[in-house]
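Q: For a teaching session next week I want to show students how multiple molecules come together into a single three-dimensional assembly. I've collected the sequence lines for a complex. Could you give me the predicted structure tokens for the whole thing so I can convert them for display?
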Amino acid sequence: MINKIWGIFIISGITFALLTNNIEVINKEILSSSKTALDMIIQIFPVMALWLGIMNIAKKSGLLEKFSKLISPFLKILFPDIPKNHEAFSLISSNIIANMFGLGNASTPLGLKAMKSLQQLNDKKDTASRSMITFLVINTSGLTLVPTTIISLRMFYGSNNPTEIVFACIIATILSTIGGLIMDRILANRYKKC
Amino acid sequence: MLTAISNLIIPIIVLFIVFYGIVKQVNVYDVFISGAKESFDMVFSLFPSLLAMILGINIFLKSNLLNTLINFIKPILVLIKIPYQILPMALIRPISGSSALAFLNNIFESFGPDSFIGKLGSVIQGSTDTTFYIITLYFGCIGIKKIRYALWAGLFADLIGIISSILIVKLMF
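A: Of course. Below is the structure for the complete assembly, covering every listed component.
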């Protein structure tokens, strides 16, 4: 599926640019995109190393495990396929917590680590498992309690009350997470049948 | 106040984790290094899928196709009294986080952050995430090729986020 979407993006983009005589921009874009990707990797890499290092201390000291016991009853409902006391639970919960506090750069390495541990449980290594997709939905629905980027952007543009949107954001993000999780359940059952 | 708190969060987390580690007699320095080492593997396996996604998305965005399509939907939005200037941001949000932020910048610049559309943009941005990027990142790093229904569930969450943002901002402000 991602193959088709990727193909559609490229084919429709280039064709449209050809038709509207805008090909010069696309030409530049094709050549520069590999550099953009490398820049992104270079940005991600140090932050990832940092947080994976810190989290390793939390893991070895047993802090992560203690912490995940607190929210695992709730996660157990969302992830029925993960065996009890599996490491994935603690990684998923720390990713969710980091997301909630708007620590985007800490949540990504934790999320990737959680995915890795879900992959160990996965039977078909090239196919996304049900738990993986549920976890992904929690992340894509943007479960954030403190949207730090937006608050600082609002401050920058001289808002009278930069934080007044926080409450609305929380409600909207809770609704979108619930919506995403319901859809995830419906689709999971559907895909199981066929 | 809020910035003061968010400035505190990270140092306190680091302090607490390292402190707890020392109390539990973990070799914190060695353990930190072996954890950080894992990032090499992750980052390098990430590069190809990130490159592919950026290539596809940037060609699509720079071709102006999306903007042309938006012009077609504009009349419908005017009809249901939703400021149409929000549409490009909402459509791009799942595809590219930085472009969506650039649109929000524009909105703040032309309407101000305290206008209705400024608030709406803030709430949409705060309650959704870059679904395509997250799928690429999370699945790319462990080599998942068949993503099954992941994209639909993710995009549905974004859709609900956008719809509820519109409703909430209309009700609250």
